[in-house]
Amino acid sequence: MNNRVGIFWFTENTFVYKTQNVIDLKPDSLGFVDSTLQHQIEWEENLIYEQFSLSLYNTEYYNFPRGRVVFNYNLQTSLIYLDKKIFKKGVVKTITSKFHLEDTAFKFFTGSHYSCFKSI
């Protein structure tokens, strides 16, 4: 299994992401494997966007469409939570590729938690 979990954003036509391998993490008591990565820390402190040649200094992580990939070990299914603004074929294909989900079941969920208030 090479599935990955982690966080991502889609801004300025760029997919910004950071992953961790599922086999390196332990499932919780309900069988979920989630990364230890936090959107705020990666964006505002580690300046993750610099790795993708973006100059978005002094911006806040929640101003851009974002999401998270979690793995349900019991169901052998990846759960992808994302802002509905980026629930589009091209972005979905990028997520499944970057998180190595080509050979696994996955489900998408949209909701207010990952919604941003800026238009894209």
Radius of gyration: 14 Å
Count of runs of 4 or more consecutive helical residues: 2
Shape: globular
Secondary-structure-based class equals alpha+beta
Taking pLDDT < 50 over at least 5 consecutive residues as the criterion, the unreliable ranges are: none
Strand content: 25-35%
Helix content: 10-25%
Distance between the termini: 34 Å
Order of helices and strands: EEEHEEHE
- Largest sheet data: 6 strands, mixed
Please characterize this protein's 3D structure.
There is one protein chain. The chain has 120 residues and is of the alpha+beta class. The model has no long low-confidence stretch (mean pLDDT 92). Helix content is 14%, strand content 31%.
